[in-house]
Design brief:
Strand content: 35-45%
Number of domains: 1
Largest sheet: 6 strands, antiparallel
Distance between the termini: 18 Å
Number of strands: 12
Oligomer: single chain
Order of helices and strands: HEEEEEEEEHEEEEH
Radius of gyration: 17 Å
Length: 206
């Protein structure tokens, strides 16, 4: 109940505070027509550079394209499920969401990155990195020549700035205005309330 109350309070305050906070919101498009019909995996990851990295979180919203093949595989502090909201916190060394996928012509989603590391950066010794990859059925990265296997990555730097790195010509990323972030944040928090409610219900039944 406490978690739900806190999240609902965040939802109510989002419209008042988001405009004054620093955050990142991207609209992501990946052209996958060259691998359309293949079965593989989509892979989202948000990891701290060191145990001393300041807290931040990333959210995947409005995911469309291709066909998901559940169940998903989750590592670390991750909640939610595609095509709904997925939240990755940088609380543990590896925070990863993977799910089987039959590729179509494209993949579209919105990426939100926020938290104290951006809104109130302190004297921390490391940042965090969000990355997105697509893999074939044997785990080999597709559509990229990056040694990391990522199509793109967003570094949350220790001073509160961010750096976008695109490693594939198949990727188009468009920054979105903060006003849209405000709306998406409220929607995301409502979704998280539902996720935590389901988790609590399962705990009471077990």
């Amino acid at each position: 109940m406490l978690v739900r109350g806190v999240l609902l309070a965040m939802c109510c305050s989002a419209f008042a505070t988001a405009a004054f906070a620093d955050q990142v919101l991207y609209s992501v498009s990946v052209d996958t027509h060259t691998i359309s019909g293949l079965t593989g995996t989509v892979d989202f990851q948000f990891d701290p550079a060191t145990p001393l990295s300041q807290f931040a979180f990333s959210e995947i919203l409005n995911f469309t394209g291709g066909s998901l093949v559940p169940p998903s595989t989750i590592t670390g502090d991750v909640g939610g499920a595609l095509p709904g909201i997925v939240v990755l916190n940088n609380d543990t060394p590896t925070n990863e969401y993977q799910e089987g996928f039959v590729f179509g012509p494209n993949i579209l989603f919105d990426l939100l990155i926020a938290g104290p590391a951006l809104t109130n950066p302190g004297l921390f010794l490391g940042g965090s990195t969000f990355s997105f990859s697509v893999l074939n059925s044997t785990g080999v990265p597709l559509l990229t020549t990056s040694s990391s296997g990522a199509l793109f990555a967003v570094d949350v730097n220790a001073g509160g700035t961010t750096t976008l790195n695109i490693y594939s010509p198949a990727v188009t990323i468009t920054p979105e205005p903060a006003s849209l972030f405000t709306l998406l944040t409220a929607v995301a928090v409502i979704g998280l309330v539902s996720v935590w409610s389901k988790r609590n219900s399962r705990s009471r039944l077990s």
